[in-house]
Amino acid sequence: MDDTDVGPTTAGGSPALRLGLRANLAQFSLLVAINALVGATLGQERTVVPLLAERTFGVSNFSSGLLFIVAFGAVKAVTNFFAGTLSDRFGRKPVLVAGWMVALPVPAMLIWGPNWWWIIAANAVLGVNQGLTWSTTVIMKIDLVGPTRRGLALGLNEAGGYGAVAVAALVTGWLAAAYGLRPAPFLFGAAVIALGLGLSALAVDETRDHARLEAAQHVLINGDLHSRLTTREVAVWTSFRERALSAASQAGMVSNLNDGLAWGLFPLLFVRHGLSMGQVGILAALYPAVWGVGQLITGALSDRIGRKWLIVTGMWVQAAALGLVALGTTFGTWALAAVLLGWGTAMVYPTLLAVIGDVAHPAWRARSVGVYRLWRDGGFAVGALLAGLVADAYGILAAVWVVAAITAASGVVVSVRMYETHRPSTIGAGQPEQV
Question: How does the protein's chain sit in the membrane according to the entry (predicted)?
Fold first, then answer.
């Protein structure tokens, strides 16, 4: 199937649903824009919240200061799992709209929260929002484009989301420098949430029938065994049993472990070396900006050269970037490290999602995406806990080196365990490989 293939006509003679980026360009573009708003909702926190802990609430140790990321990551990870199951049961659009509705109280909690526990609670609510909305936009784009342009589609999705994280981090950094840490940065977030809810409720179309169309056209090599997995079987298959899916799950978790470290500790490291709030905002934005824009290249590149070695190389580039952060002491060095970290993450992020889309059968793909994203976003919580404990015991730089070593090891795991999932001879085959 190429990008212009169509399904059969309906009984009334009108055109049926079509799979492909070109055939669904208007709806696909709208979903990219909505995912950018999802990213901006997260990005409002990247510069400001780590500094709130220290400057506004007097949180003195790293472990306590990073609890907001632990709460966010743990809740988002679990919500990702249920987002896939709920979107299969009730449809994609209701889950997307519900995710935006959950986010409505977050800016108020961040603006008027009287103590650090309110900020932690706000981030738990934000985790529900991000799990429902981001997971659903990913699933909907996979539904629309079909099998041949999956890497490009997910690259566009993640570029929109993380490009907006960068813009929001920069904007809120400027607002904080000009008007203080509260309330101005979070008024920006409130406007973003209102726009996201309005567009999702009024303009988005349901895409579940596109997945059903692909499932009807899907060809299995060895019968239909893998089209009828229970949710428990999907969880086991994605997490442990299937080689490519399980390798992708651990790599996704480690990649977000990096992001939990960067989100929670990098602003504090930079401030302690004398950087201004404006410079911290630039660095906080530079990493997700390169991450976002880079995915415009890497997603499509994975459709041409394959997934596996792009992922392996990306994990090793991230590890090298973290080492440079640990060695650096100046804005210029850290800016270079942020660029490298963003590029390495861009090589990995859409490609791992494309692996899930390559291997998982359309009948249970949404649930597999949910399981993968449970592992991946659990990395926020694991990264924040690990980084906080190591930083309290041995300092921030030790935490950076530990995470760098874990990231390099994750690349080795992918190189040994994962097989190439995107080959012309296997596109549409739908046959996973067991341990």
Answer: Multi-pass membrane protein
